[in-house]
């Protein structure tokens, strides 16, 4: 493929919209730039529009409005078989009547590549499928089928590889192994991977950049670290991991620049939150703190806490989970907060249910979200 | 329980299965046996008299039998080809496209199968007569009637195969640079083909076998089932058993070949290319 030197072949979506004939809008004017060579995840609950977005990029569905570009090439209305894009389907969609080798060489053959044998050999080696070349898909295990789907797409060296819940059908152990495998292959081939998933852990372990989608929109985009530590909406705060959200009233601002903080009254105690972590303009807000950032200590004993401090909480529940313990803390104002504590052994046992405890967290870990948002948004019901 | 009792218990299902199979195949064995019957000396044609090769050496001896067979086979082949093409296209439309009146169409396709043949045969005759074809009853009216009732069976058979087919496979083919034409011939068709083949075999046997509808619309033309029916009034010539045996062997060969092919496919031994 002849590309202009140095031309960035980023995948760019502009104003991309999908409205179905029944009036349902699956994707609402999406603007997104996915840098060339990155491992990008579209994360969201089912029905958030992530798969529809993927299908529009693949050309399997036509957008109602908006454009799709790779570099300077407009592919919005290009036929799927003319796009430099390949897809790994959710249930692999391997051709059952063809052998593994025939499945893999399907793409190159259609593009008129004459000698596919060496390419097939190479890609089967990369995906550790050499032994399976002559078998039919039905004779392979789930993990092997997954690798065939990957090999069948990768052999074409697409500019963008789309992965639609590629690990959804695998069991937990295999999924972990394949996550590492996928990441390795992506680094090896250096293609742009766009990975659609509802599994936040999967998105966070593999992707460089994650876009959290909800109801056809992107809620927040960033590195897994940024998204987790500094969520901008209650949806992101709850969908990625868990969060304690407590109602608070802004009472003042102090400092400037990087040192700027916002003072928030939280049920009688004033807590400070860094201005860069405040995501509301109103005077009310949800103070958010991740459970593992919450520190507890039985009342009366010293607590390492240079910051926000509360007393009068009672342990209402303690679930021991081996590596950590999950405590539920009933706060004086009646709300239950969650606290994860690593079982380092320093306490020499668990804090018993009913114990009065002091609660604290470092101010730099807290964040403030808009009070108009639903504190329960993004909590997945099992 | 005694040892014998246990042995019976273990083998009862197998024994019953074999009995049922025997029950199903005895008529075919009798037909095969009777095809070697020398009936020339006897008045009772339904009893085995003595062994002869004559029936097999002169299968066309009974007047008009082979002519009726030729008619049945040609109608069968033509009806199969036409109904398979129309029925397959209809099945694709019904499964793959959303259109106004689709569920009604699904029901309408099914109805002819549920209609008693005697009703269908007489109403077809009424139709042909009303259309002024009363004088031309024969090969072509039989063919039209056969195509008509075969289509339903083809649609139903192909439709079930097609609806079991993951439509993501076609999307995957398109994603892998196959255009619409290549997608159809390399992915869709090979996967639906077993259904189409089954439908064609079914159509042929339905057409070849049909007596009631044919009898209404045949005019002076005599198909094989009509010949056998007519001959049975006087005593069936033994050569009918020869034809019966040949048909049975042909069907058996088809089934065995199909089985062998599908087993070989399942073992994935078709890679040499």
Automatic annotation (TrEMBL), chain A:
Residues 11-240 form the ABC transporter domain. Keywords: ATP-binding, Nucleotide-binding, Transport. SMART domains: AAA (SM00382). The keyword ATP-binding applies. It comes from the Bacteria. Gene3D superfamilies: 2.40.50.100, P-loop containing nucleotide triphosphate hydrolases. SUPFAM superfamilies: MOP-like, P-loop containing nucleoside triphosphate hydrolases. This is Spermidine/putrescine import ATP-binding protein PotA. It comes from Demequina sediminis. The gene is potA.
UniProtKB/TrEMBL annotation, chain B:
Residues 69-258 form the ABC transmembrane type-1 domain. SUPFAM superfamilies: MetI-like. This is Inner membrane ABC transporter permease protein YdcV. The gene is ydcV. It holds the Pfam family BPD_transp_1. It comes from the Bacteria. Belongs to the binding-protein-dependent transport system permease family. CysTW subfamily. InterPro entries: Bact_Polyamine_Transport (IPR051789), MetI-like (IPR000515), MetI-like_sf (IPR035906). It is found in: Cell membrane. The chain crosses the membrane at residues 12-36, 73-95, 107-131, 137-162, 183-206, 242-261. It is a multi-pass membrane protein. PANTHER family: PUTRESCINE TRANSPORT SYSTEM PERMEASE PROTEIN POTI (PTHR43848:SF2). The keyword Transcription regulation does not apply. Keywords: Cell membrane, Membrane, Transmembrane, Transmembrane helix, Transport.
